[in-house]
# Entry
Amino acid sequence: MLPRDILPQVRRIHIRTRRLVDDVLAGAYHSTFKGRGMEFDEVREYMPGDEVRTIDWNVTARRGQPYVKRYVEERELTVMLLVDLSASGQFGSVLRLKTEIATELCAVLAWSAIRNHDKVGLILFTDHIEKFLPPQKGRRHVLRVIREVLYFQPQGRRTEVGRALEYLHTISRRRTVSFLVSDFLASGYETPLRIAHRRHDIIPISITDRRELSLPRLGFLELQDLETGAHIVVDTASSAVREAYAQRRAVAVEQRRQLFQTLGINAIEVRTDEPYIHPLMRFFRQRERRR
# Structure
């Protein structure tokens, strides 16, 4: 049974994000992802005019003459939303929590997908898989996706990005466009990301709060790690403490960016104190230009 205040929240998110999609994002999404889904059909003998890059070298070696791979364009895409519900998402130092931003991002992407006649699936995760909704179409399904991201009460508190990617690789044998929504306050996901990216179009969306990047000068502060429950007291009046903290966070962010760049992954970086529509549109424009 849903709490009484959940349905009005879902309705507000529905109205706000649907309007945003209708006014701004629908065309950008379609331009970016139309024709991106390609499905393997067969191999056939090479014919003059075929592109060299389509040659299947394994089959060619076995049969002693050139063969090429033939692909057909899929009529629809499958969009997966992998959403981090770990406890660190319950943080926000300005107006909104990271989980609230994540909910609206998922709503915008889901509405854009069904407007393009694509299917949408959902994986909620913490340090284990919390819930899976198989890909479907339709308005009712999108409303359920919004409701699950907004209301679901996870059992875990920590973040295991790699586990979500491994699960995606297990349940989806066909290529998907997968938006990975997380604050990425985690480690050890490099190998699962590399493996998943070989089959799927992985698009990380990192959500960051400004106080995770730098500490304010407020004297002694007691900080708590929301995922482990650990407490620590820090002297934020000390410039050395603030600089060390900022440098450590900057290194972590840069390492993540370098990982994505090395793998050829386009990431979207969202802040809780800035409108998310701008990085979304910037991503769509960049992807469209690359096509």
User: Anything to note?
Assistant: The CA atoms of residues 85 and 126 lie 5 Å apart. The chain has eight helices and ten strands. The longest strand covers residues 38-45.
